Amino acid sequence: QITTLINHKDKPKRSDKTLQAIQRVGQAVNLAVGRFVTVGEAIANENHELKEEMSVACIEARRAGETIAQLTDVASLDHPESDSHITIFTDKTGVVKAARLLLSSVTKVLVLADRIVIKQIITSRNKVLATMEQLEKVSSFQEFVQIFSQFGNEMVEFAHLTGDRQNDLKDEKKKARMAASRAVLEKCTMMLLTASKTCLRHPDCESARINKDGVFHRMRLALEQVIEIVTDSRPNGENEMAPISIYSGIKEFKNKVEGLRENLYFLSKENLSTMLEVILEHTEDFTDSAYTSHEHREHILELSKQAKMELEQLVSVWMQAQNQKTKDLMEDLEVAILKTCQCMNELKREVHSAATSLAADLLKYHTDHMVLKALKITGVEGNLEAVAEYTCKLSEQKEQLVEMCRLLRHVSGTEPLEITCIHAEDTFQVTGPQIISAAETLALHPSSKIAKENLEVFCEAWESQLSDMSLLLREINDVFEGRRGEKRVYLSLPRPGKHNANLKALKPVKLDTEEQAKIAKLGLELHLLTSDVDSETEKWEDQENEIVQHGQGMSSMAYSMYLFTRGEGLLKTTQDLFHQAEIFATEGTKLASALHTLSDQVHDDDKPLLLLEAEKLISMCKQLQITAKASAQGKSATFTKVDACILKTRNVMTLLCQLLPLCCKLLRKNKAGNACLKPAPPWKEDRLRTGTNARSPERKVDAFGIKSLENHVANMTFLESK
């Protein structure tokens, strides 16, 4: 809205209608600032150490908002009464100054609020650590139950705070690391419960103590990593040194080689040779692995040798071209560049095939969990000899899976997937020995229900990680085959030929800078509408309601379309946008169906209005689908189609903003006292609830598995301690 005000065209004459529209925008900015500042002031009152700074920033923002409203007020503008048209602003520079002050003060408020959120997470972590220390030292079952109940509540708080933070992170690498740390904490919370119970029941059992100590140690490491991510720091000022994968190495190497077309002097031949050496050193992870097939090993060695030869040829032509830029030499250089890049592509394809085929075979082989089943049976039988035999087999399985994760990391294709591979490797490394110690404890105490339950929990964690590996393998293959993003709920991109018979004939097109500028205002309006829809859906107490689910889905898709207008997000081409518009329209039709269902539940007086709105929605979604499916040839026609899709999506979102509060009101009226709207919580509570961030398809970050944890606590009767 500020952009709209600043970029208005400086025409000498304006109609009353236009001027009133400008006034409405100015008032909307002021109202939005007022709401924003109210939250900032509430934060200030709850955090005395930053109250003064926050209050000053809020006052500045409020003053700037009021100034903008005054400068766009029709009544305050000086214009000749005899003229049918009135002049535009008498003081545009004043609006610019006010806008700058507003953006500056809003930024201050956001930075201060961010500092408070970080402090909250650190405080929550410290509470969890303190309670963990108490849990480690308890000697009675009754004391453990009391402290663990407190620990569960603290972990719930920490889960919500870190979940909100994970949603807010813009860096995909940090987001992946946060997700990995939170996954560890989620699984370890249940492990800590059963491992501690086993230790209390069998205090003299060494394997039970080792099992419990391993869980506490892993939880502390995960808590520390969360704080590193949140504060963007590492202990003792160390820099994070992430291992380089073959994929990233090849990508960088090819970029340097292809850069020779533009500049023959920007790097030395030694640099290029060193880069290739590093890549080929990493291929030794494949050629030295006992699990790589003979065929893959031979192909990788052949391609490594060929890559060296191609680079030698490239360097030879490159050096000649530096001395003498003849047409023939430049053609030879182009051929050498193409052959080198082609060789690296073949090497990349070969290591990808080696890693993914190994992973597929291992996951298929271990899908029956025979070793885990055998450990459970022999443990209950108290057969120490058989347990020892199967723990050896589990150790072998662990080594295979760890090696699989290391090789997959090399071919994962993106940093977040690399981090997921590293997390999986760590999980297998740690969980394997923990299963062994849990099985040994059960074998020593075969009649112990708690020891049996403990082994079950660790085996479930192993099985869960194997299941996650199947999903990870699919994502890695998606990235390799150019289907990145297909796994996402609302941003599924079309595979060639899958959704549209003519798709192969269409050339993917991106908006250029000029087109992005033309459509920016429409995109901004769509962005504001997604915020309004998110605000409405958050007011519903029943977040599982079908209407809310469809509304959130549509908001998420509309936001991705807004990002497209800025040249950002997962929708890379116009074809992606058109496909997204079709899915959006389908989701809108489903919402209309849910409205029809609701109309059967409401009073007769309210039914006509609801059905009328539902029919409006169906009509608008049909129009959007027709537009999205219509063919468009040429740059101008394609842009017109993009503009029409965004415009019609905006119209649907406008209707959705009216529908959501109406539906909630009718439900509340119908349920006679069972309110569907919840009051706006205080700021602290709002940060602690499980939020729904409509800014990405992965916006729902679940809290830890606390429900099952609480059930365990409830079942821990004092009779068990006997």
From TrEMBL:
<protein>
    <recommendedName>
        <fullName>Alpha-catulin</fullName>
    </recommendedName>
</protein>
<dbReference type="GO" id="GO:0051015">
    <property type="term" value="F:actin filament binding"/>
</dbReference>
<dbReference type="GO" id="GO:0007266">
    <property type="term" value="P:Rho protein signal transduction"/>
</dbReference>
<comment type="similarity">
    <text>Belongs to the vinculin/alpha-catenin family.</text>
</comment>
<dbReference type="InterPro" id="IPR036723">
    <property type="entry name" value="Alpha-catenin/vinculin-like_sf"/>
</dbReference>
<dbReference type="GO" id="GO:0005737">
    <property type="term" value="C:cytoplasm"/>
</dbReference>
<dbReference type="Pfam" id="PF01044">
    <property type="entry name" value="Vinculin"/>
</dbReference>
<dbReference type="InterPro" id="IPR006077">
    <property type="entry name" value="Vinculin/catenin"/>
</dbReference>
<keyword id="KW-0963">Cytoplasm</keyword>
<dbReference type="GO" id="GO:0007155">
    <property type="term" value="P:cell adhesion"/>
</dbReference>
<dbReference type="InterPro" id="IPR030045">
    <property type="entry name" value="CTNNAL1"/>
</dbReference>
